[in-house]
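User: Can you predict the 3D structure for this chain?
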Amino acid sequence: MTAIESPCILVCSIDMKTGYCFGCGRTGNEISDWMSMAPHQRSAIMATLPARLETVERRPRRETRRSRMARERSQEDSA
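Assistant: Here is the predicted structure, written as structure tokens:
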């Protein structure tokens, strides 16, 4: 059995703005189809990943409990 090269770094979260994974830069479809792709298809995608990763934030934006509570308070105050 031949090992298949993968850019996955186990940070599996998609940037909603770009559609790219924060960890590897692939799209959701590319991730799910990766094992069935031909080697030349995977190589072509791998060549685009560094440029893609430059377009996403380095880590997913997550709303903290504190910022969520502040947002909810401001929404209540403006209502």
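Residues 7-79 form one domain. The helical segments are 28-33, 39-53, 65-78.
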